[in-house]
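Usage

Read records sequentially. Each one opens with the input sequence:
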Amino acid sequence: MYSGKSLPSLVCQFYYFSSRSLCRTRDRACPCVMLKNDPISSVRLLSCLDDMVAVGTESGLVVVFQLGSNVPGHSKKHQKFTIEDQHEAAVVCTEWSANGMKLFSGDKAGKVVFTAVDFYEGVCRPTVLITEPSPVVQLHYLHKTLLVSTHQRTLLCYTDQDCKIQQVGQKPRKRIKLLDNTRTGKPPSDQQFGLLYVINDQQLVSWHNGGLLVVDPVENLIVGSCYFRKPVLNIACTEEEIFVLTEDREAIRIAMKPETARLGNVQT
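and closes with the structure output:
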């Protein structure tokens, strides 16, 4: 949701960028007309030599964009590549390498695809990397090592060692249920939490359908919580800010300090 410079929001089959420095919304939905009737399920930003975006969809498409730049020596034109016939299920997470030459994507069927991206040659080369028996929930890439987390387990894939796989731990992932007491006579429901995000040196934030929680793992305390009128779709964090995207397409900023510039349609 937030890359440090721009705040995109998922709106049906389109995506938008809101420039915080220019205080205006730049609609880049036009190149996405091919995504009609195919809702976006994942977005990943990268700012390196160029600004790039990877978009995953419910049907299994992965669309890669290189955004035009006004910086001297950089292309001012947008480039787009569509990666098809690799995922048969919704793409739920994507991950860039630091230089933007590698893109990893994971789907609800447990498949992880590696794509070599070459904007200068104008080609993308996808390869199926891993196939797991349960949905992928998180990808993270660092130092030639890809972390893959699924509903059942977490593993490390060493991309410089013929994709050698090492499982984290010896047993399947345990499930810890949080029961929500109800007076409606219906059975209590399980709360499914999203990913954990670091917001400062000692606190983490996670979210579920109704809101978010800030926890201190050292003191074993919940230090804050926030609930919303509409279900939460996703959150993003920096060291000082939390951005929340809700089902009614609101982007909400939570922070200790006010934003110095107006954020357009972002509530604070």
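Summary fields computed downstream for this record:
- Residues 1-13, 22-33 have pLDDT under 50 and may be disordered.
- The domain at 175-268 is CATH 2.40.10 (Thrombin, subunit H).
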